[in-house]
Amino acid sequence: MLGIVLDLNYLQNHYIYVIHSYGETNKIYNRVVRLLENNNSATIDKILLDKIPGGRIHNGGRIKIGPDKKLYITTGDAGNSALAQDPTSIAGKILRIELDGRIPEDNPIINSPVYSLGHRNPQGLAWNSQNVLYESEHGQSAHDKINIIKPGNNYGWPLVQGNEDSTEMIVRKPLIHSGKDTWAPSGITFVNQGPWQGKLLVATLRGQQLLAMELNGKGTVVNNLQGWLKNEYGRLREVVEGKMDRFI
Questions:
Q1: Which of 112, 121, 216, 235 supports an S-S bond with 138, CB 3.0-4.6 Å?
Q2: Where in this chain does the record put each Glucose/Sorbosone dehydrogenase domain (predicted)?
């Protein structure tokens, strides 16, 4: 099991969306399924997206419902970096589908779930109050990134990392990267209320801390970066904004 999210109308339809890994004929794949919960037991209601290339590393696996009520899925390169630049592969991508598995008509590639490409191992997704989409991603050797995701944009892996340029294509540079430090960023959330309103919070694995990024008014520039809970709780997998300004 990798990612999980409840339907926006869960109390009425009892739908749960998950992405998980499985083995078939000595190969590893990932798939997105819709579960139906009934009396505290869930069954597979529908397979929404199947045969996403998988591996023992770099599966991505975050799944979120966006402000547009579409399902967004992060997929890693499954240990084969060339897949990230292959527009016909759904590995190393941010994917976008309807809640019933259909391909949105306004996706950047016709009849494709691919929303953005050139990702190594994307781990987190979050939107700010202006519907700007942020994504967290592991670099190869440090150079971990927080990206602003735009439809159809290429984020460079494996041709570039960090803030590098490419002579082969137009690559969108990250909002911020870790340089020679290793964050191993995981889940992220944008804070909409309370004393941390307007900050982007990033849970980290190797970094073993919660990063709080103060952004400009448009959410496009990091003005300040602070670390919290350093080495207090080990690897932090996810951060969510709860009620009464509590963070989990």
A1: 121
A2: 1-243
Please count the other Cβ atoms lying within 10 Å of the Cβ belonging to residue 206: 16
For residues 168 and 145, give the distance between their C-alpha atoms in angstroms, rounded to a whole number: 21
Please state, in angstroms and as integers, the Cα–Cα distance from residue 47 to each residue in 65, 102, 238, 247, following that order.
17, 11, 25, 32
Amino acid code (one letter) for 149:
I
**Number of residues written out for the chain:** 248
Max CA pair span of the chain: 56
Contact 35, 95 (CB under 8 A): no
Is omega for the bond preceding 87 within 30 degrees of 0, making it cis?
A: no
Quote the pTM value. 0.95
Cβ neighbours for 212, distance < 8 A, ≥ 6 positions apart: 196, 199, 200, 201, 202, 225, 226, 227, 228
Q: What are phi and psi of 5, to 5 degrees?
A: -150, 145
pLDDT digits (tens, 9 = 90+) for 187-232: 999 998 888 999 999 999 999 999 999 999 999 999 999 999 999 9
* Burial of 174 per CB tally in 10 Å (0-12, 13-18, 19+): buried
Going from the N-terminus, what domains does the chain have, and what CATH number goes with each?
3-245 (2.120.10.30)
